[in-house]
Design a protein that fits this description.
90 residues, alpha+beta, 5-stranded antiparallel beta sheet, 2 helices, 5 strands, elongated
Length: 90
C-alpha cells in the first residue's frame, strides 16, 4: 500500500522515521587509577540488536551491543573500560 502525503505531512513522516531509527552515540572510556586519567578508546553507534565502534587507526568493531563492545575492548589492556552514552539517556 502506497501512502500519499503533501509536503508538510511528508516532512513530518520523514522526521519521525529518522527519530525512531536513529542510533545512539557512545564512547568507550578506559580509566587509569582512581580519578587519575582516562582515554577514549572507541566511539560508536548502537542500534537495536547491534553496535559498531570505531577505534583509533581506523579499525571497526561490530558487536551485539555497546556493552559487549566495551567488554571486548577491556580484554588484554590495562585499566577497566566504561561505556558512556553521549545522549545521557538510559
Amino acid at each position: 500500500m502506497t501512502m500519499t502525503f503533501d509536503r508538510k505531512e511528508y516532512e513530518e513522516f520523514v522526521a519521525a522515521m529518522i527519530e525512531d531509527e536513529r542510533p545512539r552515540m557512545f564512547a568507550v572510556l578506559r580509566e587509569y587509577g582512581e580519578c587519575e586519567d582516562a582515554e577514549v578508546v572507541a566511539w560508536g553507534f548502537a542500534w537495536t540488536g547491534h553496535a559498531t565502534a570505531l577505534l583509533p587507526g581506523g579499525n571497526v568493531l561490530r558487536s551485539g551491543s555497546a556493552d559487549r563492545a566495551a567488554r571486548v575492548l577491556e580484554r588484554g589492556h590495562h585499566g577497566p573500560t566504561r561505556l558512556v552514552w553521549m545522549d545521557h539517556s538510559a
